[in-house]
Amino acid sequence: MSQVDTLSTGPEPGSSPTNTVVATDSMPPTGSGFSPSKIVSKGLALATSRLALSVGAQALVSGFHFALNLLLLRLVTPYDYGVFAFAFVLAMFASAVNNALISTPLTVYTPVIKDASHRQEQEAMFSTLNLLLFASLIMGGLAYAYWAQLDTGISWGVTAFVAVYSARHYSRSAGYARMKPLITASGDAVYVGAGLLIVGTLLLTRDDLPISAVLLALAGANLVAMVVERWRLHGNTRRWFSLAKISSYGTVWEQSRWALAGSLTTLFLAQAHSVIITSTNGPNAYAPLAAGFVLFGPVRVALLTWQNMVKPELAVALSESRQAAVRQQIQTTTLLMAGAVLMMGVFLWLAWPWIHAFLYQEQYADQPMALIVGLWSIITLFAASYNAPAAALQAMRDFKILAMASIYGAVLSGVLVSLTLYFYQPETTLLGILAAEAFMAIYLTRTLYSRLHASPTPAA
Questions:
Q1: What is the per-residue pLDDT across 372-395, written as a single tens digit (0 to 9) for each?
Q2: Cα-flanking dihedrals φ and ψ of residue 179, to 5°?
Q3: Which is it for the CA torsion 372, 373, 377, 379, positive or negative?
Q4: Do 52 and 46 meet the contact criterion of CB atoms below 8 Å apart?
Q5: Distance between CA 227 and CA 273 in Å, rounded?
Q6: Quick one: pLDDT at residue 256?
Q7: pLDDT score at 226
Q8: Over the Cα atoms of the chain, what is R_g?
Q9: Among residues 16, 159, 358, 423, which one has the fewest Cβ atoms lying within 10 Å of its Cβ?
Q10: What was the pLDDT predicted at 7?
């Protein structure tokens, strides 16, 4: 996924400002033709830019998760794969809480603070909240497992994975908040390396591949990545474990509470089928829908990565009343995202016989996988079309509008998923998700452009 940056936030120390688009004449001056060396140097500069390295590192993460899902689809039973997929759903809900209450305020509030000591104090407050959330997830997960008498191994694996996944989301956001995406990129690369090492060791030393062990391996890899990110961000200083009073969070809470409602309902409107089907029919019934979503998982991760990376830039641009630049970036990015998803859908349609034979023939031959994948393709297209407007509204700190939109979408999704599951087969629940995503695309896009049109522009 690519984008055209129209916002300049300044380079990282030691890097060049390669993410800034500079207008040039369409024809070079006489005698300054494009030599092969210039083309190579420009290609290297683009490949080593902060944007390219950040997106490339996230592509490694997406590729690793994609390959792991393909491996599990072929090696484990639908029940075990349903447990694994639902663990990721729970992790996304935990990250949504983190994103709303901690990570998003970190990335949209602290970048505009000019005083270094004040900024450090605010970062320490968010770090304290992240630690409290981590502890709450561990205790809550283990308490529920004990109360429900769940399998001990799976309970530990799911709980550890969900809690660490949420904490890592904050760690990744810290790099973006400091306008240093390469720190996050290095953590992503370390996560993939550690994950490959641990999972590879499991494959070589065991005859089976327990889902609990896979989840614990991913939790461990995330912990290693967090250590690297903290080292690069703080070095040998005591700020690794900087804590602070959270009494000043009250002013942030006035807006973050709407972000929390918005994040949870946005996630529910996209995952209502997973929650409702797993809780009523079990992991076996949810597994085919999760298996169909595997093909689109990297796209969703890429969309979220772009959103996390660009929110600080949009916040700075909006604080400087550069609405025209924001509008242009949103339009360009939306077209690129939607176009990429559309091309992917066409490719899947053309290659479907081979994809079905490789992925689904053995474990899911009795499931309508073509219908499931087709519906996921349309759902992802709508999700991609409103990803950029959602990021801009978050940068505007207009969390109440986002929350109300997602509440409406979540109600629509939950009602339609419940009705279709009651009267028809589980795969038809995706129609409810599709209706909710289409509603969000239309509502958020109209809202954003109304807000940008109403906002004052700087004098010439």
A1: 999 999 999 998 888 888 888 877
A2: 55, 35
A3: positive
A4: yes
A5: 35
A6: 79
A7: 92
A8: 22
A9: 423
A10: 33
Which pLDDT value is given to residue 435? 95
Residues contacting residue 418 through CB under 8 Å, at least 6 positions apart: 276, 432
Residues 6+ apart with CB under 8 A from 457: 321, 323, 324
Instruction: Provide the 10 A C-beta neighbour count for residue 89.
Output: 19
CB 96 within 8 A of CB 275: no
Mean pLDDT, contiguous 10-residue spans, the chain (460 residues):
34 34 40 54 55 75 90 90 93 90 82 73 83 93 84 90 94 81 88 94 88 94 92 71 71 79 85 92 92 86 71 71 73 81 91 92 91 94 86 77 87 96 94 94 87 55
| Predicted local confidence at residue 151, as pLDDT | 80
Helix, strand, coil % in the chain, rounded to nearest 5: 80, 0, 20
What's the pLDDT score for residue 93? 93
CA distances from 240 to 102, 123, 135, 230, 369 (A): 17, 11, 17, 6, 47
Distances (CA, A) of 146 to 39, 85, 86, 93: 62, 21, 19, 21
Tokens of 54: 């950040």
Buried b or exposed e, range 129-164, using 16+ CB within 10 angstroms: bbeebbeebeeebeeebeeeeeeeebbbbbbbbbbb
Q: Is 12 buried (19+), middle (13-18) or exposed (0-12) by CB count in 10 A?
A: middle
pLDDT of residue 51: 64
**What are the Cα distances from residue 438, in Å, to 1, 381, 383?**
22, 9, 8
Half-sphere exposure in the Cβ direction for 440 (13 Å, CA): 39
Report residue 455: phi and psi, to 5°. -75, 145
Q: pLDDT value at position 185? A: 87
User: How would DSSP label each residue in 226-279?
Assistant: HHHHHHHHH-SSGGGG-----TTHHHHHHHHHHHHHHHHHHHHHHHHHHHHHHH
Chain-centroid distance, C-alpha 94: 12
- Give the model's pLDDT for residue 308: 66
Q: How far, in Å, CA of 302 to CA of 175, rounded? A: 17
Helix axes 283-293, 369-385, angle to 10 degrees: 60
* Residue whose C-alpha is closest to residue 397's, from 257, 233, 274: 257
169-187 pLDDT, tens per residue?
988 888 877 777 788 888 9
DSSP state at residue 207: S
